[in-house]
């Protein structure tokens, strides 16, 4: 009810404003004033204001870069992340000068060519030369950026071959937490189906599947061995989630009823990253990056990257599915 009243009140204020303007127009017209004619002085003033706005706008831009520069992510902790970061940097170095040039032109022209009664606008209907230039230049520039991005995408998304030595982990998303499932000694994950979800079997793992017996289910935090390819498979139980591991430059949607995948090679251990960032409390993190409900903000899991030796020790301590 309150909302409706507020909407009605706002509409009435707007309607009153329109009526007041109409009356003042009528009064001005009756006095013989030309109300829709912009004077030279007004045009100049508007041009000058736009030029001043340009300086404020650029000032704000520079201030933002300066203020938030320190909030950038540290160096990429995954191998593919280097290519990903250079794609980002190349794109920024490319578009930032274009941003400045186009905006200087925009505001300078509106100042320089503000209305003047002494000047007449040039009139020409068509220029093939101009058309070719402003079609070709952006097309080539965008094609270069897109092809560069596509080549990065292909290297990132290529699944790890079965023969290659790697770790296979399933990340299972539900409102509002993550579960990691490690493939056991057989190197494969047991079948799972949402129809089998009940009681302690929150992932719906098929207990009749032999491959499931040695799977290890982990909550709270999960570990990765440094320098070894990790193949992730993502599943979701209820709604769309998104597995986001910013330090590894990795993000993938988790879709109910659909398996998605992503892989990377972690190259910096948690201990090394603590030194790099000079932050004793540094922790790699898995976040949900799709607003999935009320406790979405709290849907996270720590990631520990360590030596193969420490990793093996940790994994051996985790209970197998059959034991649980
Ligand atoms: Cu979420």
| Spatial order of the strands forming the largest sheet | 3-2-1-5-8
Q: Low-confidence segments, ≥5 residues, pLDDT <50?
A: none
The total count of strands amounts to 10
Specify Rg, calculated over alpha carbons. 30 Å
Strand content: 15-25%
- Our measurement of the CA-to-CA distance between the termini, rounded to an integer number of angstroms, reads 54 Å
CATH superfamily of the domain at 167-317: Cupredoxins -  blue copper proteins
Counting helices, strands and paired strands, the structural category is alpha+beta
Q: What's the average pLDDT? A: 89
- In CATH, the architecture of the domain at 167-317 is Sandwich
If helices are DSSP runs of H or I spanning 4 or more residues, what is the number of helices?
6
Order of helices and strands: HHHHEEEEEEEEHEEH
Identify the CATH class of the domain at 167-317: Mainly Beta
- Main beta-sheet strand count, sense and barrel state: 5 strands, mixed
User: What's the shape?
Assistant: elongated
User: In which range does the helix fraction lie?
Assistant: 40-55%
Under CATH, the topology of the domain at 167-317 can be stated as: Immunoglobulin-like
**Bound ligands:** copper (II) ion
Assembly state of the chains shown: single chain
């Amino acid at each position: 009810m309150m909302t409706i009243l507020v909407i009605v009140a706002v509409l009435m204020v707007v309607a009153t404003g329109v009526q007041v303007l109409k009356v003042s127009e009528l009064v001005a017209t009756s006095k013989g004033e030309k109300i829709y004619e912009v004077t030279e002085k007004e045009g100049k003033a508007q041009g000058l204001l736009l030029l001043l706005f340009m300086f404020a706008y650029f000032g704000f831009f520079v201030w933002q870069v300066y203020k938030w520069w320190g909030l950038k992510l540290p160096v990429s902790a995954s191998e593919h992340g280097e290519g990903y970061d250079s794609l980002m940097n190349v794109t920024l170095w490319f578009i930032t000068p274009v941003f400045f040039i186009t905006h200087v032109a925009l505001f300078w022209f509106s100042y320089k060519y503000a209305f003047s009664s002494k000047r007449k606008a040039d009139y020409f209907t068509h220029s093939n030369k101009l058309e070719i230039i402003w079609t070709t230049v952006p097309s080539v520039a965008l094609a270069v950026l897109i092809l560069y991005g596509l080549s990065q995408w292909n290297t990132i998304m290529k699944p790890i071959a079965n023969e290659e030595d790697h770790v296979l982990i399933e990340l299972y998303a539900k409102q509002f937490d993550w579960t990691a499932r490690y493939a056991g000694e057989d190197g494969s994950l047991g079948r799972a189906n949402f129809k089998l979800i009940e009681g302690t079997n929150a992932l719906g793992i098929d207990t009749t599947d032999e491959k499931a017996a040695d799977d290890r289910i982990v909550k709270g935090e999960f570990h990765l061995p440094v320098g070894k390819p990790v193949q992730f498979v993502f599943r979701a139980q209820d709604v769309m989630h998104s597995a986001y591991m910013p330090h590894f430059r990795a993000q993938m949607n988790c879709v109910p009823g659909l398996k998605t995948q992503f892989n990377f090679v972690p190259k910096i251990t948690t201990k090394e990253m603590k030194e790099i960032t000079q932050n004793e409390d540094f922790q790699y993190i898995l976040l949900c990056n799709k607003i999935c409900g009320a406790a979405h903000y709290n849907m996270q899991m720590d990631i520990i990257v360590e030596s193969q030796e420490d990793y093996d020790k940790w994994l051996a301590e985790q209970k197998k599915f059959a034991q649980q």
